[in-house]
Design goal:
mainly beta, CarboxyPept-like_regulatory, Porin, 18-stranded antiparallel sheet, elongated, signal, DUF5686, Carboxypeptidase-like regulatory domain-containing protein
Length: 841
């Protein structure tokens, strides 16, 4: 045994000696100008990472010696770019150093700092001069400059459970699941990391810029570790990430704006420090460290790697600060690599983003999920002819089996082979799928995510969050519903519900069926019927869908009594088609009868000729044009799950009432328009814009009229007016505008003590203007009660706080609302408080 130990000790010392024997303590050579080939004197030479030069040359020849190993030399001279060269046995003698003239005219001297230096003003900072050149030469994505292009995209998303320990592994929840820890890895901290999810995808991207702009991103292969049929888990994974451009002023993470360190507004947020020059893929680059001036703001810290010749961003690292104020997130880090084919453009090469998620605690030791996504871009081809059929959507692309590929394909498709840990994910998840306990856990997660509970193959109960409600007419209300559900890509769906009120002792119901004939253009037909108590007038741009639920008909807590509910018997048939991506045309045919659910307190009686009518009979056809440019969806079935984006929603609707059809009482024409868009305002947060306008061209009774949406509940309800009563404003012609800005804690981060609460401030203003004609008032028996905001624009304003909670669980929001005018009306509320859940990042 002693002889064996001595043998390994001898081998160890032999290796160490060999390393020292090959290490360099002396380096010699010459220094010349790269353009003139003339020798240069007065060059400062730095050894390794030392900040002080070991030698300043008096001619073009140098010889440096050191007691320590020399593995890198840096050469610096005024008006020349910093040059850094790695040293080994092959170049230690007769090293030829070529210095390039500095291209930034106002950089007089480059000082390498490892600590944060202090400058009297930013113009003294050499990093500022470099960044000025970056901004001056801001590059655009190279894909826009070519007539045609194509490239391959490989995406890998992995989830790992992190910070596990032996105590956690012994919990009862892991009974019969303990085999999963055979796939765990020990981390540097001694904790356990366990891979739990892996998704690989390969996309082929095609684009054309001339004569018309067209593009297509085609999913050609996908492999998921045991979750192919689980739309919630896969959607969660895909929905975490956004595409970013380092040159933009604002980077989008979770639809929250982070200031970009390479953006033109970067110096308002970050301090920059030039610390080194290094070689990246054979290119010399400035290494610039940046960090936020204030740690409380949503910002990054890390490094920028800027080409010394053309000031292109070769790469960047972005890491969140310790005080990141994003729900469920403990940290974000991103590594970016770019290719730069010319002076004006860049091409993405590789992006890696890692997100640490925890449900409750912000502590480093908290058990968390590490979600890592890496994307490799390759096989770029430019100006190669592309046939038009490449851009045409095909039926086979939407088949579930279209993306199925064998193991041989994946071995070839991956830019790097899977690690042993990643390979184990597939094996582990296959075993877990056969474990009932694991399936029960997944089922619970699916239920909370979708709102439906699967009771047997093909049947889900729900939505579970609609089971209980309460209102003045029905009292306590119970609602039970179900839907068909076989796979995530079902081309058809049947849904129904039944409800019962314990005060009016009436049974209500609704049922609807839909079938999609074609996955490409999503040609769909459907129909249904419902008899229910509904709060009309809480939306302006409504839909005729049978399964839509009116929040006010089942509000648990509300200010004042609400008896303005309607009893509706409605039958709807519809067809829709998507002739172009994210552009939908829908036609609805609706027959309905509407009457007051409480005639003593809410009068819908109107004049029909010389008679009084309590029930409105209506038949109408609605043509809707719905545009969602930029929206992204998962799945291809009748129901799709939308990825988080900043895509706008644009709706144009025309409704034609048909008198006499199924005993309908009125001919009328209505035109409506809706525009909704979230907008990132740099580091100042996000603004939500909602604009609606419409006009009834004919006289109709109150049940068919436009009602400015009020909200008498204490809950937060989007696009309603918090201080309006139901039916307070009625209008033939209307316009409304809602502006709501989320500051993401920008202002509160300046206030001592308050900033520790990590609250985020909100400000909002809402306005409505409209007119109501005399005939429209006169047709209703109690028409004198109703008016439009025609004297002045009605407005409300206020502020609120979101991100209320503890740790990472900050899901509450509270709003304080003030009514701006029309204060002389009876039974109004000048001030109100709304509260609610707001689950999001």
């Amino acid at each position: 045994m002693l002889i064996i130990k001595l043998k390994y000790h001898f081998l160890f010392y032999l290796i160490i000696f060999s390393c020292f024997a090959n290490a360099q303590n002396t380096v010699s050579g010459s220094i010349i100008d790269v353009k003139t080939n003339k020798e240069i004197s007065g060059v400062d030479i730095f050894i390794n990472d030392n900040n002080n030069p070991i030698l300043t040359t008096t001619n073009g020849i140098f010889n440096v010696q050191s007691d320590s190993i020399i593995y890198k030399l840096k050469f610096l001279r005024k008006n020349y770019a910093l040059q850094s060269i790695d040293i080994d046995s092959l170049n230690a003698k007769n090293l030829l150093v070529k210095l390039s003239p500095e291209k930034v005219s106002n950089i007089e001297e480059v000082i390498i700092h490892n600590e944060k230096p202090k400058y009297k003003n930013k113009k003294e900072n050499p990093a500022y001069a470099i960044m000025q050149e970056v901004w001056k030469r801001k590059r655009n994505n190279g894909l826009d400059k070519f007539n045609t292009y194509s490239y391959k995209e490989y995406e890998k998303i992995q989830f790992d459970a992190n910070n596990l320990d032996s105590t956690f592994m012994k919990k009862k929840i892991f009974n019969k699941l303990d085999f999963i820890f055979d796939y765990a890895d020990s981390t540097a901290s001694g904790k356990i990391g366990l891979p739990i999810f892996l998704n690989e995808a390969v996309y082929e991207n095609y684009g054309k810029n001339k004569p018309e702009k067209r593009n297509k991103r085609l999913l050609v292969a996908q492999k998921t570790s045991g979750f192919q049929d689980n739309q919630i888990v896969t959607l969660t994974a895909k929905n975490l990430y956004r595409d970013i451009n380092i040159y933009d002023n604002t980077l989008n993470y979770f639809d929250i704006g982070f200031p970009s360190p390479a953006g033109q507004t970067g110096f308002s947020t970050y301090d920059y420090n030039l610390i080194d020059t290094i070689s990246i893929r054979g290119e010399n680059a400035y290494k610039i460290r940046y960090q936020p001036k204030r740690t409380e703001v949503l910002a990054f810290q890390g490094y920028l790697y800027i080409d010394t010749d053309n000031y292109a961003v070769l790469g960047a690292t972005l890491k969140s600060t310790k005080k990141i104020n994003v729900n469920f997130i403990n940290g974000i880090s991103t590594e970016l690599e770019y290719d730069n084919p010319d002076e004006n453009t860049f091409l993405p090469k590789k992006f890696v983003t890692e997100i640490e998620m925890t449900p409750f605690s912000k502590k480093k030791t908290a058990k968390s999920i590490i979600a890592k996504r890496s994307v490799d871009y390759s096989e770029y081809l430019f100006d190669k002819p592309l046939e038009n059929k490449v851009f045409i959507r095909k039926e086979e692309e939407y088949d579930d089996k279209f993306v199925d590929r064998d193991d041989a394909y994946w071995v070839k498709a991956r830019p790097d082979s899977l690690s042993k840990t990643e390979q184990g994910v597939y094996d582990m998840l296959d075993k877990l799928q056969q474990t009932p306990k694991f399936n029960r856990i997944v089922k619970l997660y699916e239920t909370l995510g979708s709102g439906y509970y699967n009771i047997t193959k093909g049947i889900d109960l729900g939505p579970i969050f609609s089971i209980y409600g309460k209102n003045e007419i029905e009292g306590d209300r119970i609602r039970i519903g179900a839907r068909s559900y076989f796979t995530r890509n079902d081309p058809w769906r049947i849904q129904f519900y039944t409800a019962y009120g314990f005060k009016d002792h009436q049974v209500k119901y609704g049922a609807e069926g839909r079938f999609m004939f074609n996955r490409v253009n999503r040609f769909t037909i459907g129909g249904g019927n419902r008899r229910d108590i509904i709060q009309l007038g809480v939306q302006l741009t409504t839909d005729d869908g049978i399964m839509s639920r009116s929040f006010a008909s089942s509000t648990i807590f509300a200010r004042g009594e609400n008896t303005s509910l309607s009893s509706v018997n409605q039958t709807n048939l519809f067809t829709s088609i998507e002739p172009w991506k994210n552009i939908q045309i829908r036609i609805d045919g609706t027959v309905q009868s509407i009457k007051s659910a409480d005639p003593e307190n809410f009068n819908l009686t109107y004049y029909q000729g010389n008679s009084l009518r309590k029930t409105v009979n209506d038949s109408h056809v609605t043509i809707s044009l719905i545009a969602r440019p930029g929206a992204k969806f998962s799945q291809t079935g009748i129901d799709r799950y939308e990825h988080g984006t900043l895509a706008p929603t644009i709706v144009l609707k025309y409704t034609r009432g048909l008198e006499g059809l199924f005993n309908a009482d009125f001919n009328y024409n209505k035109l409506q328009f809706l525009f909704y868009k979230p907008v990132l305002i740099g580091s100042w947060g996000k603004t939500l814009i909602n604009f609606e306008a419409g006009k009834n061209f004919n006289t109709v009774p109150l049940a068919l009229q436009n009602v400015i949406p009020g909200n008498q509940s204490y809950s937060l309800v989007g696009n309603t007016f918090a201080q309006l009563n139901y039916y307070e404003f009625v209008a033939d012609t209307y316009t409304t505008l809602h502006l709501e800005h989320h500051f993401n804690g920008k202002i509160l981060s300046f206030i001592p003590l308050i900033k520790k609460l990590k609250l985020r401030e909100i400000a909002f203003i809402r306005g409505a203007y409209g007119t109501l004609s005399d005939p429209s008032k006169a047709i209703n028996v109690e028409g004198f009660k109703y008016s439009a905001p025609s004297e002045h624009i009605y407005y409300e304003y206020g502020f609120g706080f979101e991100n209320i909670g503890f740790g990472n669980l900050r899901i509450f929001r509270i709003d304080f609302n003030w009514r701006g005018n029309y204060l002389d009306r009876p039974d109004i509320s000048r001030f109100g408080v709304k509260v609610g859940f707001q689950v999001g990042f």
